[in-house]
């Protein structure tokens, strides 16, 4: 069924060992990490639980005493050294990511670059943590300084095994915090490799730990341990709500980047080619397994048929297969349950009157592959209108007016991302401001960059990642009120 992974220059990236306090944990029970394209075992990973997580947090607490005191310039230099090693091992990291997650190799290499961009950005932001002086009165001055929040617990998902890590860990380390990270049990290898490179770059032991294994036990410790003062999570809304509730007992600062149900609006005056390219970039990246995917494509009647025809022509030509065996556009879904959900959404839509334009079935490439799919006649009553499909299915909804489009787009509890395509400048402003989301891609299917804040409203989360605002999530403000004696009379 094909290769599991080609030989790596860094064969130690395949050891499958968590990293705590600068040392790999080699002993203990293990579980298999498999390549979703082939079903073959990639590595046997040591499975950790509550005790090891507590040990990791305790090492964070010890390391924090020194790390927080390091000059910002020194933390910046160490992050730049980490960045250099990530770039040096770009190809190995891309191969590893494709092997454990399934995305096409070109996308995996692009994600390594994206992950590196966060390290670079926050290495530079480390030196820009400014305070302020507030005028008070003749006998008092008020100074505000910013200090690291402390030990950070972080949980990241399987769909972006590198970028979701550096988007959290780089600003935390730049701010002077220490981190214990739990990556997804499905894709831990990239996390282990990144942690090794951080250690090799000179980031001290205990500053950046990685634990993986018993997810409920690890999550419970990260959300309840009194030494963890900040908790950050990327994943489903349901799990995010649960973890937020667990953090309440110790009043941790919380950042949540949760699920989406992104609408993509195409108006009659849109550039057709640009709209199709944007829909493909948004909907089918990572085989439709992203939180900012265009889950609902809303197209105005006048352009509807031409848009569907052009989109289906492109989608039907996608190359589907193992990303390690040649050029591909679409890889496998991550698990069997993910495939079942995609099948269920397509079947439900068809039962309620949707028409398949292309795709709609399992793909012959392997057990977890699904044909890239376009369907029309989608309606709000269908499951795919209310649930994230997280797969390569593009449902097209028809609308007649701008007001109707906005009402359909906003009819969701999620509010992460949205997209709109129009050449009318007035409509562009009205729609961008009217969409109830944290991010809008206007005439673009991409909203993610290290320079812009990433995050949602409604039930899509709390806080922002990336940009200059991203480091603020890991800083506390301290007010220092300074008494000033009046000048003595001559």
UniProtKB/TrEMBL annotation:
Family, per entry: Belongs to the aldehyde dehydrogenase family.
Residues of the Aldehyde dehydrogenase domain: 29-480
Keyword Oxidoreductase attributed: yes
Name this protein carries in UniProt: Succinate-semialdehyde dehydrogenase/glutarate-semialdehyde dehydrogenase
Signal peptide (residue range): none
GO biological process terms on file: gamma-aminobutyric acid catabolic process
Pfam families to which the protein is assigned, alphabetical: Aldedh
Record's keyword annotation contains Oxidoreductase: yes
Organism: Novosphingobium marinum
One GO molecular-function entry: succinate-semialdehyde dehydrogenase (NAD+) activity
Record keywords: Oxidoreductase
Domain of life where this protein originates: Bacteria
Annotated catalytic residues: 257
Lineage: Bacteria, Pseudomonadati, Pseudomonadota, Alphaproteobacteria, Sphingomonadales
UniProt xrefs under InterPro entries: Ald_DH/histidinol_DH (IPR016161), Ald_DH_C (IPR016163), Ald_DH_CS_CYS (IPR016160), Ald_DH_CS_GLU (IPR029510), Ald_DH_N (IPR016162), Aldehyde_DH_dom (IPR015590), Aldehyde_DH_Superfamily (IPR050740), Succ_semiAld_DH (IPR010102)
């Amino acid at each position: 069924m094909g290769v599991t992974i080609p030989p790596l220059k860094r064969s130690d990236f395949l050891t499958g060992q968590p990293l705590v306090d600068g040392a790999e944990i080699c002993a203990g029970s293990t579980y298999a990490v498999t390549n979703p394209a082939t079903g073959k075992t990639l590595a046997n990973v040591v499975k950790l639980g509550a005790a090891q997580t507590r040990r990791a947090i305790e090492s964070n607490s010890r390391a924090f005493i020194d790390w927080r005191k390091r000059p910002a310039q020194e933390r910046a230099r160490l992050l730049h050294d980490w960045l250099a090693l990530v770039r040096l091992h770009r190809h190995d990291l891309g191969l590893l990511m494709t092997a454990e997650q399934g995305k096409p190799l070109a996308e995996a290499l692009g994600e390594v670059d994206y992950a590196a961009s966060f390290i670079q950005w926050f290495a530079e932001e480390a030196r820009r943590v400014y305070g302020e002086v507030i005028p008070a009165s003749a006998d008092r001055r008020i100074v505000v300084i910013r200090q690291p929040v402390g030990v950070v617990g972080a949980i990241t998902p399987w769909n972006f095994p590198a970028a979701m890590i550096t988007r959290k860990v780089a600003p935390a380390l730049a701010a002077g915090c220490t981190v214990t990270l739990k990556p997804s049990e499905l894709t831990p290898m990239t996390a282990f490799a990144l942690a090794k490179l951080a250690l090799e770059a000179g980031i001290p032991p205990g500053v950046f730990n990685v634990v993986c294994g018993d997810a409920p036990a690890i999550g419970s410790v990260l959300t309840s341990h009194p030494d963890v003062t900040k908790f950050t999570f990327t994943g489903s809304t349901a799990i995010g709500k649960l973890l937020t509730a667990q953090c309440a007992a110790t009043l941790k600062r919380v950042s949540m980047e949760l699920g989406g149900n992104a609408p993509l609006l195409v108006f009659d005056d849109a550039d057709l080619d640009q709209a199709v390219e944007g829909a493909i970039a948004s909907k089918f990246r990572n085989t439709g397994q992203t939180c900012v995917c265009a889950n609902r494509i809303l197209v105005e009647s006048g352009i509807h048929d031409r848009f569907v025809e052009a989109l289906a022509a492109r989608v039907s030509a996608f190359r589907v297969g193992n990303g390690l065996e040649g050029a591909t556009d679409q890889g496998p879904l991550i698990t069997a349950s993910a495939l079942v959900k995609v099948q269920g959404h397509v079947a439900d839509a068809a039962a309620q009157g949707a028409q398949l334009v292309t795709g709609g079935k399992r793909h012959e490439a392997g057990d977890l592959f699904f044909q890239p799919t376009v369907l029309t006649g989608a309606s709000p009553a269908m499951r795919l209108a209310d649930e994230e499909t997280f797969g390569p299915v593009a449902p097209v909804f028809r609308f007649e007016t701008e007001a109707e489009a906005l009402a359909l787009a906003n009819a969701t509890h999620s509010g992460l991302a949205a997209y709109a395509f129009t050449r009318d400048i007035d409509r562009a402003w009205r729609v961008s401001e009217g969409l109830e989301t944290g991010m809008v891609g206007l005439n673009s299917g991409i909203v993610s960059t290290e320079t812009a804040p990433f995050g949602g409203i409604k039930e899509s989360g709390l806080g922002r990642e990336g940009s200059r605002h991203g480091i603020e999530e890991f800083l506390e403000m301290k007010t220092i009120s300074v008494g000033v004696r009046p000048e003595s009379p001559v």
